Amino acid sequence: MHRKKIFVCCFLIMVVMLMAGCSKVAQAGTTEQSEEVRKIAENRLEAILESKKIVIGISPDYAPFAFIAEKKEETYCAGSDIELGKYIAEQMGVEAEFREMEFEECLEAVSKGEVDLVLLGMLGEKDREEMMDFTNVYYRPGTQVILVKERQKEKLKTQEDFQEKTLAAQYGSLQAQLVVEQFPESYLNLSENVSGAVLMLRTGSVDGVVLEEALAGEMLREYSELARSEAEITYTPQEIVGGVGKGETELLERINEIINSVTEQNLYLHWIDEANELAASM
After folding, report:
1. 124-141: per-residue pLDDT in tens?
2. Exposed e or buried b per residue across 229-254, where buried means at least 16 C-beta atoms within 10 angstroms of its C-beta
3. Do the strands 187-191 and 166-170 form a parallel or antiparallel pair, or are they unpaired?
4. pLDDT, tens digit, for every residue of 47-62?
5. Are residues 110 and 153 in the same domain?
6. To 5 degrees, how large is the angle CA 73–CA 76–CA 80?
7. Same domain, 185 and 250
8. For 127-136, 232-241, 258-267, which range has the lowest pLDDT when averaged over its residues?
9. What pTM, to 2 d.p., does this model score?
């Protein structure tokens, strides 16, 4: 997932100014005091808690994880990784400060201790592990399944059964890509969000909808008229992780506790759904 971007965030300490993209307005004196607190802290977690701020490195050129969005002619950073960063900060009782830089610069920044955490839609590759300690996996696209109407379940049991049929998937999603690759004889109907795709199925405008297994389970609990098709979709999951500086054990443990809560509640799946919808509207 190597990527390049064109937005670079500058942090000016001595003046009060509006910062580009995701950065925040800060007073120089307050920033200097915050940095002094960090210098005398015993570890990075303590420094974050005492300074009331966690600095997160991002590379906002990779939707739906992080990207530049616009609202009322103002740009801001959006994406599922941004929501994760905000949630981590909220659970720690601190403010999230996002610093934009290129992907490789983020890796270097966390290895040098210039940021507390990086969230980059990043794979935990071996060469990166030499630069940082990985967090627990916070996104692992799991088994991909097809939902159909319960009354159609016995008629739509294989990939071949979906020939000349219409499948729905969210715009710009992994699921849409899999339909194109693995169901070449089927028709693809794109929706802005998962709810819209499921509604297409419930109203009979499509024959099936491709979803991640966890979200499919939620839909099955909510709509008794739907069922899971036995048709198989081939996909090898890739595990997405964040990173902190080497040896920051206390910080890593706290972030992992929060990430475990995120995955247990399927929060990230909903954030990535919302991010896909926003990215499609840009």
Report:
1. 989 999 999 999 999 988
2. bebebebeeeebbbbbbeebebbbeb
3. parallel
4. 999 999 999 999 998 8
5. no
6. 135
7. no
8. 232-241
9. 0.71
Render pLDDT for 102-114 as a digit per residue (tens, 0 to 9): 999 999 999 999 9
**Do 120 and 253 share a domain, yes or no?**
yes
222 shares its domain with 150: yes
Looking at residue 141, its pLDDT comes to 81
Peptide bond just before 60 cis, omega within 30 deg:
no
Per the structure, how many domains does the chain have? 2
Question: Residues 100, 221: one domain?
Answer: no
